[in-house]
Amino acid sequence: MISLNIEKTLGFISREKVFAYEPLVKEAQNALEKGTGKGNDFLGWLHLPSSITQEHLEDIKATAQVLRENCEVVIVAGIGGSYLGARAVIEALSNSFTWLQDKKSAPSIIYAGHNIGEDYLYELTHFLQDKKFGVINISKSGTTTETALAFRILKKQCEDQRGKEMAQKVIVAITDASKGAARVTADKEGYKSFIIPDNVGGRFSVLTPVGLLPIAVAGFNIDKLVAGAREAEKACGADVPFAENPAAIYAATRNELYKSGKKIEILVNFNPKLHYVSEWWKQLYGESEGKENKGIFPAAVDFSTDLHSMGQWIQEGERTIFETVISVEKTNHTVLVPSDEANLDGLNFLAGKRVDEVNKMAELGTQLAHVDGGVPNMRLCIADLSEQTIGELLYFFEVACGISGYLLGVNPFNQPGVEAYKKNMFALLNKPGYEEESKAIQSRL
Ligand code: PA5
Fold first, then answer.
1. CATH 3.40.50.10490 placement within the chain
2. Considering the domain 3-37+226-414, what is its CATH architecture?
3. Tell me, which GO biological process terms does this entry list (predicted)?
4. Is the whole-model pTM more than 0.95?
């Protein structure tokens, strides 16, 4: 199971102050368990791992199999919580070079509907021209412009290219039970569809079909992912004593650091496969906590790559940051540094060592340097990169986010601020129903 080490924050905040959060954390946990806190209609994720039935998992796997048998490429159309969880898991577990190989054991997963880039869509539709492709259309509201726009284009292309009957087989919708355009289209076209429960918000939905279906299509074991999340549900439960509960300690420590003036949390990894786990985490914490003019700003870096860019800022820039490092104990493969008689590069001191040993020393050296430079450092250890450990990590972050949001005093389950840009965009595009806003915005230009 995940372990959290906060020792290297204790030169900046005291253990006593962190442990003083115990009653507040208890209160937050009770509010989550009893549904008495803010946003309590969105708590379906809290005991989701233990309530997922095998029948549901089999349904997802059977649907994934249809896509795997009929598609070379599957497009996951979604934005925010409707794609980041799937991408985080798929990229963490995939071979970094599979996408370049000709023979693949699973369809390639490509993402769309998470931007409005015309060139992106042009290049995507061209890439798909000679491909047998399918689409998983994911939108809880069913009305998100980015996703709906991409889906309109992809649906037409899929029908034109593969015929209406095959398109019906290889397009799957994951959306609300009854509301929204995605539901209307799915029902009218007869697509296989899955429901996103009302009480699970987008960024907490990775363990619903939103995440599980794309992950299963990519060939990963969703039983093990859910098993990992179940382990974390136990280890981070409200009945686990504060001192032994990594989610409680993480939530308390980051809030105490925030109070002490550390306004930015940088999630660090030393494994490039975790890049999208960080993207998912940024969304989870940014959208959950950044409101009412408060909230830790969630940032992320991939080390050692970014030590040669952001490393300078982290070491010597404004002292308003702290780091949370995801440390992966064991790699899945072994590469030894070869010995070289000529030793022209002077690297023989590393000969015979594992590359991961070098990486681990980079990690340790960086931790010590950053702490010396005034950056508190938490270390979150996972055993390896596997379905089980990623499942643990995702649930750990979710429950810690719920607790942390309540400690901060905000509703971690809404996102009112996301509407502001949409209102302006619709007004500028003269969307029906936005006539007043259109007039008002035009006068500002
Ligand atoms: O966490 C959230 O609720 C958001 O990030 C949503 O997932 C995102 O805005 C996409 O919404 P929808 O699934 O309704 O298209």
1. 3-37+226-414, 48-220
2. 3-Layer(aba) Sandwich (3.40)
3. gluconeogenesis; glucose 6-phosphate metabolic process; glycolytic process
4. yes
Q: What is 48-220's CATH number?
A: 3.40.50.10490
Mutate to test the pocket of ligand 1, among 41, 42, 79 (most ligand atoms within 8 A of CB): 79
For the beta carbon of residue 381, count every other beta carbon within 10 angstroms. Answer: 16
Dihedral of the CA atoms 296, 297, 303, 306 (nearest 10)?
Answer: -150
Known active-site residue 287: yes
Question: For atom 9 of ligand 1, which residue has the closest CA?
Answer: 80
- Please report, in tens digits, the pLDDT of each residue of the chain (445 residues total): 899 999 999 999 999 999 999 999 999 999 999 999 999 999 999 999 999 999 999 999 999 999 999 999 999 999 999 999 999 999 999 999 987 777 788 999 999 999 999 999 999 999 999 999 999 999 999 999 999 999 999 999 999 999 999 999 999 999 999 999 999 999 999 999 999 999 999 999 999 999 999 999 999 999 999 999 999 999 999 999 999 999 999 999 999 999 999 999 999 999 999 999 999 999 999 999 999 999 999 999 999 999 999 999 999 999 999 999 999 999 999 999 999 999 999 999 999 999 999 999 999 999 999 999 999 999 999 999 999 999 999 999 999 999 999 999 999 999 999 989 999 999 999 999 999 999 999 999 9
422 tagged catalytic: yes
Determine the atom of ligand 1 nearest the C-alpha atom of 203.
1
Please give the DSSP secondary-structure letter assigned to residue 319.
S
Ligand 1 pocket (Cβ < 6 Å) reads 79-82, 139-141, 144, 147, 201-203, 287, 415
Least Cα distance to 171 among 105, 80, 83, 76 occurs for: 76
Contacts of 174 (CB under 8 A, 6+ apart): 82, 136, 137, 138, 139, 193, 194, 195, 196, 208, 209, 210, 213
Whole-angstrom Cα distance, residue 176 to residue 195?
Answer: 5
Q: How far is the CA of 225 from the centre of ligand 1 (A)?
A: 22
Q: Which residues pair with 268 in a beta bridge?
A: 301, 325
Q: Nearest to residue 116, comparing CAs of 443, 440, 433, 425?
A: 425
Give 202 Cα–ligand 1 centroid separation in angstroms. Answer: 5
